[in-house]
Every structure is written in C-alpha cells, then in structure tokens.
Design goal:
338 residues, alpha/beta, Rossmann fold, Dihydrodipicolinate Reductase, domain 2, 2 domains, eight-stranded mixed beta sheet, five-stranded parallel beta sheet, globular
Length: 338
C-alpha cells in the first residue's frame, strides 16, 4: 500500500462482527482508530477495554472526528446508521446486506454518489483466496452449487437473535448471491424458490434455482436451522471443476488438460478475508482523498444493491410459492426457543 499516512477510522456497532472491524483496524498499519460507538454501552465498553479504544457516547461526535467509518449494526438499522454519515461526506463500509429493502439501498447509493465518497459493502467472501481464482476463470461457468448452513443463533438480551431481523436470504444466502453474480455475467431469466420459516417470522431455510439468459444456472441453499454447519461452494465450468469447503478450510481445482485432469489445492486460510476487505476500503479512501477522483472499492454500493435486488426477488418468490399452495407456518415463540 502506498504511504498515505494513517486514515482516521471509527466503528459504529461493535457486536459479533463489528468487534472484529475494531480489532483489525487497530492492528492495521494504515489506520488510526478514533473510537467506537454502540447503543449498548456495556458492549462498547467491553470492546473498548479489550482493544484499548476510546468509546463514544454520541455517534455523531465520533463521525465528526473520522475520515471513514465501518457500520456493523443489525441489517434493519443499516439505513438509519449509514445515511447520516454519507450526507456528512464520510466514507463508509457498511456490512452486508447493504440495507433491509431496495428503496433504502437505492437512497444510500444515491447519497454516496452525491457526496462523492467511497461507499463499500461488506461482502467479505469476495476477499477469500479461492475467489482470486474464480474471478479469473469465470467466463466458462455453467453451473454453481452453494450450501450455507448454520445453527440457529443464540438469544441476546434486549435484541433479536443475531441475523433474524431479516430472512435467511438476506442473512446468509446473499453472500452466495453476490458470488454468483460476480461469476456469471448475464441477466437472470427466471428464479424458482422454495423457502419456509421454522423458528423465525421470516424464512429460515431457502433453496433458490437461478437460471441465466446465457444458459448458466445456480442452485443456492441457505439455512439457519441446521444441526451441522456447512459452507460449500462448487463451480462446474466447461473444462474445470472447483470446490471450496469453508468448514475444512480447503479448496480444490480439477482442470482438464491434454493428458487428463490436473489438480490444484487451495488453502482457504492463506489470508484473513475481513482484514483484506478493510485494507481494500482504506486504500480506496486514501486514493480518493489523494487524487480527488473517486476510487471504487472492490464491492461498491452498486454491487451491494445488485445482490439485494436478487435477494428480495428470491424472498418474494418464496412467499408467492407458499401462497399459491396454501402453505401456512407458525414459527415458535421466543419462550419456546429458550
């Protein structure tokens, strides 16, 4: 990274994921952490003490002292937390999904454009080492199969279980939606979906089959009610098979050559994807401030909005399917889950 000096950064929301933003910024030679803010004072104090960071009682006071901020609050608060920062002219990295609905996301993208600031979305899977390979060889992709299964999140005092403020599509599947859209350069022809709520008020398990105009196809399954976690992404190309198993931190590439199949193993621990994402954001901000010309991060707001549009279409198709067949569900109450 060029020597731009340390960028003054802050973190708004230091829960399960925001805590790691704060930690990695503190470790970065390219960032100076001005401080952190969280609506839970106890949580903020704990993270502040752990990493030696200043805790702010007012998010606006924190933002005024920063050049750039990470927003890692629950998804349904992304709009309310991010819009004021963009309007203040602050560079922002907001965690995925970009927002809980399309109108909010569109307004955020427009605000960033109007202010001329870097606006990044935290699709961290774009920074894993396997994607370095996949993005190079995306042209011949014909079929993608993704499984992202997780256990139901534990209860939190005074807040919904982590991620359940939105459906599993926005919580988990959107990672794989973004990867698929990055690899398949084609418009979507149709989407077939089955999805049901089990323990939440929104879908907890969903399977979506996406058919593209160019003939490519993707089958995505996401669940947050599985006993055995699984994160697997497989790609079938015209002359190549690529498999990534995040649970075992292992990837494999089988590529056809003149004498048969050549195998290449990929270590998914080669780099810290979140650290790489934060450094990409820092670099984009520094280049923008230095040149006066907007430098886009690897995952700009427009691409976060693109993934959200498909995610919302999948949600709508799941609900249309259930209405068509008269399926009704009664999720458990919080008392039944605890």
């Amino acid at each position: 990274m060029e020597n731009f000096g340390k960028l003054k950064v802050g973190v708004i929301g230091v829960g399960a994921l925001g805590r790691h933003h704060a930690r990695l910024y503190a470790q970065s030679p390219n960032a100076e952490v001005v401080g952190i803010f969280d609506v839970s004072k106890d949580n903020a104090n704990a993270v502040g003490t752990e990493f030696g960071l200043k805790v702010f009682d007012d998010w606006k006071e924190l933002a005024q002292q920063c050049d750039a901020l990470s927003v890692a609050v629950p998804a349904n608060y992304h709009f309310n937390a991010t819009m004021p920062l963009l309007e203040m002219g602050k560079h922002v990295l907001v965690e995925k999904p970009i927002a809980a609905n399309i109108p909010e996301a569109e307004a955020m993208v427009a605000a960033a454009k109007k202010s001329g600031v870097v606006f990044a979305v935290g699709h961290v899977e774009r920074f894993n080492p396997a994607m370095d390979f996949l993005e190079k060889y995306h042209a011949a992709t014909r079929f993608i199969e993704a499984h992202r299964l997780a256990k139901y999140p534990p209860p939190r005092v005074g807040a919904p279980r982590r991620g359940t403020e939105v459906s599993v599509v926005l919580d988990l599947m959107i990672h794989d939606i973004d990867l698929v859209l990055t690899m398949v350069k084609s418009e979507i022809e149709r989407i077939d979906v089955v999805g049901i709520p089990v323990l939440s008020k929104t879908e907890d398990i969903v399977n979506a089959r996406i058919k593209f105009v160019n003939g490519s196809c993707a089958s995505l399954t996401a669940s947050r009610v599985s006993q055995d976690p699984l994160r697997r992404f497989r790609v079938f190309q015209e002359d190549c098979y690529i498999s990534m198993d995040y649970g075992s931190h292992f990837g494999m590439v089988l590529k056809r050559n003149k004498i048969g199949l050549a195998r290449k193993d990929v270590n998914l621990d080669d780099k810290n994807a979140l650290a790489a994402e934060l450094e990409d954001f820092i670099l984009a901000v520094n280049k923008t401030r230095s040149s006066g010309v907007l430098c886009e991060p690897k995952v700009p707001g427009e691409q976060g909005l693109r993934a959200l549009r498909v995610a919302v279409a999948i949600e709508q198709e799941a609900r249309r399917y259930n209405e068509q067949y008269g399926f009704k569900f009664a999720p458990c109450t919080p008392d039944e889950l605890n």
